[in-house]
Design brief:
The chain has helices at 8-13, 61-77; strands at residues 21-24, 28-32, 40-46, 85-88, 104-108. The protein contains two helices and five strands; from the N terminus they run αβββαββ. The chain is α+β, with helices and mostly antiparallel strands and 117 residues long. The chain has a single domain, classed as 2-Layer Sandwich (HIT family, subunit A). Strands 1-2-3-5-4 form a five-stranded antiparallel β-sheet, covered by helices on one side. The structure holds adenosine monophosphate. Residues 8, 19, 31, 33-35, 43, 90, 96-99 line the site of adenosine monophosphate.
Length: 117
Amino acid sequence: MQYDPEGIFAKIIRKEIDANIVYESENVVAFEDINPKAPVHILIVPKAEVATVNDFTPDQASLIGEMVLAAQQIAKEKGVSESGYRLVMNTMDDAGQEIYHVHLHLLGGRRLKWPPG
Ligand code: AMP
């Protein structure tokens, strides 16, 4: 999938568009979802230009790990570590991916249905 450097998340990373940023490191930024599907709904985004999970390369394995570790830390800060939370990476059309800058959803704060449908 072609990466669009003028996409919404690219602009959030460059601070050209406002977002409620809850975490930032050298390689990763995380912010509140603008249309939350749960009481806690955070998007964890790599700063690298990666459109979908399909586009990760083997040298980005540690970046993927950083995203999960960021989610772990944010879940703790948001108080859902023990109650439970879900990490989701929607990939391509059938999964409902809307933004083609790869992102990890962190959802929690309520009972989540499974399977998601
Ligand atoms: P996905 O469907 O997995 O691509 O998820 C995209 C998510 O981005 C959705 O949950 C949207 O609510 C969220 N979103 C879209 N625009 C923004 C924005 N400007 N700031 C924060 N979240 C956004």
